[in-house]
């Protein structure tokens, strides 16, 4: 989390929306073998938890249940050039959005894992505009059982949220718009739009 309180938010709906929209993150924990990180799809449950799955052979999978872990979901980010300011006597910076979530992790049972996989596929298949929707029943049951045996499902009850929405809040509205236009021109439209929508 960035130390400047200007870059924080208490807007829980905004944080939840980011986690839900991005749907991919990193899980960090300290294990007996040292600190480890896993990259995984995440599913916001809507009731204060995230769910995810790891390959059974992942360095975190055998230690994670019962631990307190950190999940991080990164949103849009972009380099901000000093040339976009009215006064060019500035230094470069980076605007970015990220949400850190800390909580206790539990291992899911087989039914929970089935529900997670179904929810992930339904959610992400709905984002594809063309073609026939893929469903898990298209995979032979023996093949699906074999594949599921290679992964472990987890749920983290989020106990602490630590967001950073660094969107040039320390600059004037005119300066922010100038920066947003520069970012737009460079193709960084998502972070530019967040600068307009979140900060105003």
TrEMBL record:
Source organism superkingdom: Bacteria
Q: What InterPro entries does this protein map onto?
A: Split_barrel_FMN-bd, TR_PAI2-type
**Pfam family of this protein, just one?**
FMN_bind_2
Q: What PANTHER family would the database entry show? A: PROTEASE SYNTHASE AND SPORULATION PROTEIN PAI 2
According to UniProt, the name of this protein is Transcriptional regulator
Which species is this record about? Answer: Novosphingobium indicum
